[in-house]
Amino acid sequence: MDVGDHTRPGAEQFPRPADPFPGEVHPTAGGGIVISKLDEIINWARSNSLWPLVFGTSCCAIEMMSTAAAKYDWSRFGFEVARATPRQADVIVIAGTIVNKMAPVLKRLYDQMADPKYVIAMGACATSGGPFFYNTYSVVKGADHVIPVDVYIAGCPPRPEALLHALITLQEKIRSGATREQIKVEKPSRS
Amino acid sequence: MTKEELKSRLGELLPSATFEEGAEWTTIMVDPSAWKDIARQLRFTPGLDLDYLFCLSCVDWKTHFTMVYHLESTIHRHILVVKAKLDRSDPEIATVSDCWRTAEFHEREAYDLFGVRFTDHPDLRRLFMTEGWNGWPLRKDYEDPVNMIKL
């Protein structure tokens, strides 16, 4: 049975996936030729295999664990395995408050991640300091003071759906080539 | 030991201490200068055996500090709260880290955040704040123009 055939009767009630393969099949005798751009294929592949870093500093991490667990199951979207080492991780979800003492640790983790790398600021603390913006001596007022952020999520803490939405937004951003990493690569070299 | 038994026992053991009413646990107020001996008595007197310090805290009342010690006996299962009023301009009280080992770190925390000096403490230095930090962050009048945005 051809599962991928969307032209068969009744298929219209199953909408096409949001990330179709970026290219088209050019039919020829004895098979077909896929026509596409290499950049688009690379971005498509990267966006569907983002490994997050095991990193959580407060209550947002509980929601992140929930998102990873069976009920919300972020592996459905390619966030397959959380890695406990920055060397193998592609995306860091800043799940929680960053205090002044944690900031150098976060910076080091980010620096240790291999390119291309992406950052999601999860929740109020990571975006702005949140409830600790005023009258606090110890909290960094937004993780983007330390490392660049690609996607921000509102919430205190955000629900798992919100985190999934942010992860899918990041995938779309990678596919359209709009992340900070990709823009950095496209700059002309200094030679 | 019930609350009434504990209260009468403490009344004869520590005639100088005053009781504070209306709290969940039996609470006594002590003079900070007598705290070292009282702590030893509470810890080692047979029948009291308050061998577990489960909370050590400091409160800034703006006019004075209050040190609060939550004690429990793991043998008899009674709980006692001890409070000592400290002078805000010169907060000083004897360490109890020789009675309860856990107080060593809790007192370092109180020193770090409130600036309470614990005399005879074996290793009184900052715990959470970085070396060379200026000031005591949990005091009500703490100002930090670099890190703090005032509302």
What does this structure look like?
The complex is a heterodimer of chains A (191) and B (151). With 191 residues, chain A is α/β, with parallel strands linked by helices. Chain A has 2 domains: 11-44, no CATH class; 50-169, Rossmann fold. Chain A has helices spanning 38-47, 60-68, 103-112, 123-128, 160-175, 180-186; strands at residues 24-28, 31-35, 91-95, 118-122, 151-153. In chain A, the strands form 2 sheets. Chain A has a 3-stranded parallel β-sheet with strand order 3-4-5. In chain A, helix 1 (38-47) runs antiparallel to helix 5 (160-175) and helix 2 (60-68) packs across helix 5 (160-175). The longest helix of chain A has 16 residues, at 160-175. Chain A is elongated and about 70 Å long. The N and C termini of chain A lie far apart (54 Å). The mean pLDDT of chain A is 85. With 151 residues, chain B is an alpha/beta fold. Chain B has one domain (3-119): Beta Polymerase, domain 2 (2-Layer Sandwich). In chain B, strand 3 (52-60) and strand 4 (64-72) form a beta hairpin. At the A-B interface, loops of A face loops of B.
Quick summary of this structure?
By secondary structure, chain A is of the alpha/beta class.
